[in-house]
């Protein structure tokens, strides 16, 4: 049994032997089992494509797997730089994109600190896991509330905006920037498992990084 990457016809494994210098690829097989598994550790965007399991019978049979690796990320609606008049509210909405499951948590930071709900008062966060959104409201903002606000969901890239709270003596600055949301990419160690049995169907899967494991089985 061989595993082949179709885009460059590279033979990744034959039996339990690996034929690539990329140590993220590994073939797994248990004695007496009809399963041959291709494991990809820490999958990356470049790993997207078709992988084929080939069985050297007569006639030869094969099974194709279409893999799409997608990075889950957060987006704060609006611009990445905001100017707020002192006494107005700061209202930020964060949406988590490209994720198959709701995040287990969404944290909000100002600069490097988790936002403290009890110290200042007037701060509320409403998180709706099913819609993958979180809303941060800071009532009656004051200049000390100026800073970089970050939405950080579990297992996803974060997104940030910079908020300036002005006393009102600079009305020309009361406008929004036009830059796009920024995020720092995080790909945590994960595994992809392709399992080859008898060959009958073509499977297509989207993998949202980071996830814990994906197992594809052709029966």
Automatic annotation (TrEMBL):
Q: Name one GO cellular component term.
A: neuron projection membrane
Q: Where is the Ig-like domain?
A: 1-56, 59-162
A Gene Ontology biological process term = synapse organization
List, alphabetically, the Pfam families matched. Answer: Ig_3 (PF13927)
**Highest taxon of the lineage:** Eukaryota
This protein is called: Ig-like domain-containing protein
Q: What is the native source organism of this protein?
A: Cinara cedri
Q: What is the lineage of its organism?
A: Eukaryota, Metazoa, Ecdysozoa, Arthropoda, Hexapoda
